[in-house]
Amino acid sequence: MSTSAIFMQRCLELSLLGMGDVAPNPMVGCVIVHEGKIIGEGYHRKFGQPHAEVNAIRSVKTPELLAQSTLYVSLEPCAHFGKTPPCSDLIIESRIPKVVIGTIDPFAKVAGKGIERMKKAGIEVNVGVLETDCRDLNRRFFTFHEQKRPYVLLKWAQTLDGFIDTDRTETQHPTWITNTLSKRLVHKQRSEESAILIGTNTAEFDNPALTVREWAGNQPVRLVIDRTGRLNPNLQIFDRKAPTWVFTEIERQDSENLQFVTLDFSRDILPQMLTSLYQRDILSIVVEGGGELLNSFLEMNLWDEAFVYTGNQFFGKGVAAPKISGEIIAFEQLDECKLHVLRRKSEHDL
């Protein structure tokens, strides 16, 4: 690994410290190197707060060394006034002579403008160090800006014989397929994404809270489909304890922590939902069921990753698990349960 790659790898490690706290912004890490040694580092800690470059520059104990240093950053420094001033301006003002960037920012207000501004100021700029890794780290952010929709993660639990539920005409209570370790991991994942979506039947039959209880982290926006307003207002998802959005065809009045988003149900609702969520700055969603909703995302090829938990039991009959084909990118053994993580193959791979 080259010297530049080593320092960029450190940027990626720092970036991950912002997971779950910076959306809809990207996770970014930055290090400042003088004569082969890191003299400052930082990462984007929380949405609306200073960016990675600012934190790294501020961390340098001997500021006069900045004029002889190289700044490494996983994503192009911004060039616009948003929640914070442009990082490219601060880099110029700090008289840093060289900047190494992992990948260009796809956000239209940046998209090469930060690089252009620094080059005009006489800074040597190199782009593309560990670019694939830098893009992959922020795949939610890149999908959001390049495809104009949230990053979609599907999640379900299935039995060894391939069922996600029993026949609810015979039993109305929720069926437990996995274990407490799997449940904790699910709650961790919820805390790292912007929103979590379920269908009408899942809300009605399972009455889930969709909260982060088994993990210390942020609460995602709860999303539920209720076309005709048939869901009981006493369900846990309507408890006002977390922001909840309802996709419906009925005009209804918003209230505290409860919003209604109207869709045209005579047309496919998934593209409408994703567009609506994009317009509301929802960077990513976890789709947790039920089977009909999960299959709809799969049939329309509107998914990016899938988390498939397999428990150590048999149902014999019931609701069949979705059929999915994709690249397995991770596997984890969770005591007697298994987790397979799949990624949708790109168009040129199909």
Question: Which structural traits does this protein have?
Answer:
elongated; 26% helix; nine-stranded mixed β-sheet; five-stranded mixed β-sheet; 16 strands; alpha/beta; 350 residues
Layout of helices and strands:
Elements: H1 3-15, E1 29-34, E2 37-43, H2 52-59, E3 70-75, H3 87-93, E4 98-103, H4 113-120, E5 124-127, H5 131-137, H6 139-147, E6 151-158, E7 163-165, H7 180-192, E8 195-198, H8 200-206, E9 221-225, E10 244-248, E11 258-262, H9 269-279, E12 284-287, H10 291-299, E13 305-310, E14 319-320, E15 327-334, E16 337-343
Parallel strand pairs: 3-4, 4-5, 6-12, 6-13, 8-9, 8-12, 9-10, 10-11
Antiparallel strand pairs: 1-2, 1-3, 7-14, 13-16, 15-16
The dominant shape is: elongated
Calculate the mean pLDDT score and round it: 92
Structural class: alpha/beta
Are there runs of 5+ residues with pLDDT below 50, and where?
none
Rg over alpha carbons: 23 Å
The share of residues in helices is 25-40%
How many helical stretches? Answer: 10
Largest sheet: 9 strands, mixed
Q: Strands of the largest sheet, in order across it?
A: 11-10-9-8-12-6-13-16-15
Order of helices and strands: HEEHEHEHEHHEEHEHEEEHEHEEEE
Percentage of residues in strands: 15-25%
Distance between the termini: 32 Å
Total number of beta strands:
16
